[in-house]
């Protein structure tokens, strides 16, 4: 029997003390969870999947996707426990600039809401050093379950002590660390975002780029498994480092957390019809990993994988009003005019319009959302296949 539990977890308060929370949904099959519990503590636990959306508050399509996922998970056979957190940023959600949500940045500090998750390399080293020989022998014999469980609780404890610091943490650190405390138990972590004006794409660590095709998203950006502050990186990097430390001792550790950032189109926009096919890609991935059963599958799309070093930003060399001549998702050729910038001080000269050309051949993944640009604005991001 599939059970849906719902909590409102308070993270923010207004100055009158009014609580502003995040909805946390937990979905699982009671009989499967009970069966695993009854099998005893040595058994593999039921896998856990964590999915959040809109940590960049204006990027709301992921919340529509979580709605669709909940609808469908209720009808499927579940071999995992799901934790789903839509609109997970109660600070960004309440900051507006004009007609729009403030979005990517804390309006007060300028901090990016997706760059303050926690990872400390020295934590992993001290965890390995603290292991008893008997625990290491267990891993050598191929039994990883106990190690995985104790490393997860170690990481959770570290997150708790970060929030407990005498000197406190900034708002983005508070938000990110609190969300990470919920996510840290999971085996699969999906962080749902959108671009500004964007086609669908997914960031996958290099070691999972093959698996990432199951999401059925046309563009995969393959990133090195390093930490730069985002949730996906904070989720898999400790395990990558742990594996390396064991490899140094000649021990192969197979377990890793799988984490992806999925970019579902453009910000300030939801489409419930599109959310159905977005959720289908996620269910397809989950079914391939035997976490759900009964899903009908997807019609596979052509997928291009681009290394992060070939995912290039085109910065504007001109200020003015910009007309975008290509859409996100379009293929462009080197030298093709992809935008033009209009300058009102030159209306009476031949310099009124400046063409912007694609520096290389590739796929336009996203462009700046506004028609007003200055020198240095990130005009386009292009997956280069030149
Ligand atoms: Zn984002």
Automatic annotation (TrEMBL):
Entry annotated with the keyword Iron: no
Domain Lipoyl-binding: 319-382
Entry keyword Cytoplasm: no
Cofactor (UniProt): Zn(2+)
Segments forming domain Succinylglutamate desuccinylase/Aspartoacylase catalytic: 46-287
Keyword terms: Hydrolase, Metal-binding, Zinc
PANTHER family: BLL3975 PROTEIN
Protein name: Succinylglutamate desuccinylase/aspartoacylase family protein
UniProt organism field: Psychrosphaera aquimarina
């Amino acid at each position: 029997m599939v059970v849906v539990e719902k909590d409102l977890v308070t993270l923010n308060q207004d100055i009158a003390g009014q609580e502003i929370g995040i909805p946390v949904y937990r979905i699982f099959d009671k009989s499967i969870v009970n069966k695993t519990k009854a099998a005893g503590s040595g058994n593999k636990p039921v896998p856990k999947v964590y999915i959040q959306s809109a940590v960049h508050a204006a990027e709301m399509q992921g919340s529509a996707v979580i709605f669709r996922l909940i609808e469908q998970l209720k009808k499927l056979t579940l071999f995992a426990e799901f934790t789903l957190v839509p609109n997970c940023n109660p600070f960004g959600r309440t900051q507006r600039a004009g007609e729009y949500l403030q979005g990517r940045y804390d309006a007060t500090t300028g901090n990016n809401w997706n760059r303050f998750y926690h990872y400390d390399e020295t934590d992993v080293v001290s965890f390995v050093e603290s292991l008893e020989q008997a625990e290491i022998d267990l891993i050598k014999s191929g039994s990883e379950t106990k190690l995985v469980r104790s490393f997860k609780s170690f990481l959770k404890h570290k997150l708790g002590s970060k929030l407990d610091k005498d000197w406190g943490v900034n708002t983005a650190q508070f938000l990110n660390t609190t969300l990470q405390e919920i996510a840290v138990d999971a085996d699969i972590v999906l962080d749902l975002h959108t671009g500004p004006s964007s086609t669908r794409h997914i960031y996958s660590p290099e070691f999972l780029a093959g698996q990432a095709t199951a999401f059925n998203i046309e563009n995969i950006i393959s990133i090195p498994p390093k930490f730069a502050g985002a949730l996906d990186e904070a989720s898999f990097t400790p395990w990558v480092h742990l594996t390396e430390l064991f490899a140094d001792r000649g021990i192969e550790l197979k377990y890793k957390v799988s984490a992806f950032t999925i970019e579902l189109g453009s910000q300030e926009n939801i489409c419930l019809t599109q959310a159905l096919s977005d959720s289908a890609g996620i269910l397809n991935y989950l079914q391939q990993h035997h976490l759900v059963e009964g899903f009908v599958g997807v019609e596979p799309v052509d997928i291009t994988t681009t290394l992060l070093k070939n995912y290039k930003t085109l910065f504007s060399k001109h200020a003015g009003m910009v007309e975008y001549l290509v859409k996100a998702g379009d293929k462009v050729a080197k030298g093709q005019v992809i935008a033009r910038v209009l300058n009102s001080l030159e209306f009476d000269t031949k310099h009124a319009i400046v063409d912007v050309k694609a520096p290389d051949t590739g796929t336009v993944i996203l462009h700046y959302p506004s028609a007003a640009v200055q020198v240095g604005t990130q005009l386009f991001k292009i997956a280069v296949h030149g």
